[in-house]
Write a structure and sequence with these properties.
about 350 residues; 14 strands; alpha+beta; 8-stranded mixed β-sheet; Trna Endonuclease, Chain: A, domain 1; ph1033 like fold; 4-stranded mixed β-sheet
Length: about 350
């Protein structure tokens, strides 16, 4: 089970989101195209699945725990029909169609996810230093939480995060009905029911990347590797047959995953796509690991070297020296003969 840690600017925002069981990333208004950072946010939304955990980060502290999912069929949606088109919308034109209306800037909250407390969002936030020191070997992505709206953690890291939050709130867990001074109360079920009524059967709110990829195309190629990441992740997560025939099926998928010893964040190596699958029936024991290096243009020999570097990293950090547990792919627009 994965975990998502969302970066917020205030406790008031936390109260608002936990009350309704909804989160929507605030982005800059697109100007006829999607920026790489916005495509990266889309790639994160593309991997969200019902049952994953969600937490919130505010001013060095982490608050949680929630679980993605709602009363409808999925946990992620377009906030309004046409939200995947990189256009600047007027609030008055879209207000009636919004699934989540957080005043005028909600037209720049293009994608939403829904969640419920699991068991609670505790008011006692845990300082980041206390989180990282509680189980140092398990925290990888949390150590690189920098300049992003939110991050995704694998099941080991997610469990370590749940552990420290639950251990620090044992007194609250002993109370049958915790009070407002102990938890953020939620009215998610009523809001989720209203959202379910609003989502039509014609797919206008369904999360997909069709318009995003169309906007990212330049001839027969894509402008950004991040749009390629988002598209491939979406197809893998949604088990698109042709994609699964090539890469196989994976239980956990993420992108821009740390693949180097700790150093300044901007200089860290990151795997474009990383994943793993479990031994069927024996979760969370892992059977295989996946790494994919993506190039929007032609492949070059250094790309092969970089991919092999990631393979060695996975072998040491995850596979305990066993190369046979790793599947590695290089995806590019074309492969020159020397490659």
């Amino acid at each position: 089970m994965a975990g998502y840690v969302m970066n917020l600017d205030s406790v008031e925002s936390l109260e608002l989101y936990t009350k309704h069981g909804v989160y929507a990333t605030k982005i800059s208004a697109p100007a006829g195209y999607w920026r790489k950072q916005q495509e990266g946010t889309l790639a994160d939304y593309a991997t969200m699945q019902a049952g994953d955990n969600i937490y919130f980060f505010i001013d060095r502290k982490i608050y949680g725990i929630g679980e993605l999912g709602n009363n409808a069929e999925d946990c992620t949606y377009l906030n309004f029909p046409g939200a995947n088109s990189p256009e600047e919308y007027d609030y008055s034109d879209k207000q009636e169609e919004l699934l989540w209306d957080e005043t005028e800037y909600s037209v720049n909250q293009h994608w939403v996810c829904f969640f419920k407390p699991s068991p609670y969002f505790f008011r006692d936030g845990i300082d980041m230093d206390d989180v990282l020191s509680s189980n140092p070997s398990k925290f990888k992505m949390m150590r690189a939480f920098w300049k992003v709206s939110f991050l995704k953690a694998g099941d080991d890291e997610n469990q370590a995060l749940k552990d420290v939050i639950l251990k620090n709130n044992q007194q609250v867990l002993r109370v049958t009905n915790p009070g407002a001074t102990q938890i953020f109360h939620s009215e998610y079920s009523g809001f989720h029911a209203r959202v379910a009524e609003k989502i039509s059967n014609d797919g206008t709110y369904t999360f997909n990347l069709t318009e995003v990829i169309r906007a990212a195309k330049q001839g027969e190629r894509l402008k950004h590797e991040m749009s390629l990441e988002a598209a491939l992740l979406f197809r893998l997560v949604n088990q698109r047959r042709h994609t699964i025939d090539i890469f196989g099926s994976w239980d956990y998928l993420s992108h821009q995953v740390i693949a180097s010893p700790f150093k300044p964040i901007d200089y860290m190596d990151k795997m474009d796509i990383f994943g793993y699958r479990y031994i069927p029936g024996y979760e969370p024991t892992k059977a295989r690991y996946l790494v994919i290096e993506l190039k929007k243009d032609n492949a070059a020999i250094p790309d092969v070297d970089q991919l092999l570097k990631y393979v060695d990293w996975i072998k040491e950090e995850y596979a305990f020296g066993d190369y046979s547990m790793i599947e590695a792919y290089l995806v590019a627009a074309d492969f020159p003969k020397e490659v």
